[in-house]
Write a structure and sequence with these properties.
By secondary structure, this protein is mostly helical. The chain is built from 8 helices and no strands.
């Protein structure tokens, strides 16, 4: 369905051709922007494509002169979402270390210790970062083998960042059950890592 054009005093909406041309014109600069931010060409390309798709889906009927600012806002939001996911993944390594000390307590929630630790403890050496990335990939693979409730609790707490009460409300259970599910999930994931030769740090 073609988009309407401007008559006198009426706001012009972007035509499909204009939207397409805008995306072409901004793609290279956006890619460079994302690449400087994430230092990974494949991730940068995914981020730019995601931002472009969001612009087309949500704001394709906006006036053409509004597209540049809208796109930059979307791109920044996609970058922020990427950083959030990376930070969450990075905390999983510390989470297993926290769990190691209290693995016999099923009501223990590793995030309670994790929240007290500062970011200076995260690895900075390239070899450490590579090892951490590989460990995180193994964790993500092992997640698919968890019982449904354990996986749900783990992801809500350690991926979505919900607190215990919020997770309990979403899952329709008690806060104690959330802590038990999380601890059992962490224990199972740690065991899966150990089986692959990866010890908790």
């Amino acid at each position: 369905m073609p988009l309407s054009r401007q008559d006198s005093g009426v706001t012009t909406v972007c035509s499909p051709a204009e939207l397409h041309q805008f995306l072409i014109s901004v793609e290279r600069r956006a890619y460079k922007h994302a690449l400087f931010s994430v230092q990974d060409s494949h991730v940068a390309l995914d981020i730019v494509q995601d931002a472009m798709l969001k612009l087309a889906e949500k704001y394709g009927d906006k006036p053409a002169d509004e597209l540049p600012l809208l796109f930059q806002r979307i791109l920044q939001n996609v970058l922020h979402d990427h950083y959030r996911r990376q930070k969450v993944r990075n905390t999983w390594i510390t989470l297993f270390s926290s769990f190691q000390n209290k693995q016999d307590d099923e009501a223990f929630d590793p995030l309670e210790i994790l929240e007290e630790q500062n970011e200076s403890q995260l690895p900075t050496e390239p070899s450490q970062l590579l090892q951490q990335k590989q460990t995180i990939e193994l964790i993500e693979q092992a997640l698919s083998g968890l019982p449904i409730r354990q996986r749900e609790a783990f992801l809500l707490r350690y991926w979505e960042g919900l607190d215990t009460a919020e997770t309990a409300a979403v899952m329709g259970c008690t806060e104690g059950s959330v802590k038990t599910h999380c601890s059992r999930a962490t224990h199972a994931l740690a065991a899966a890592l150990k089986a692959k030769g990866v010890e908790s740090p």
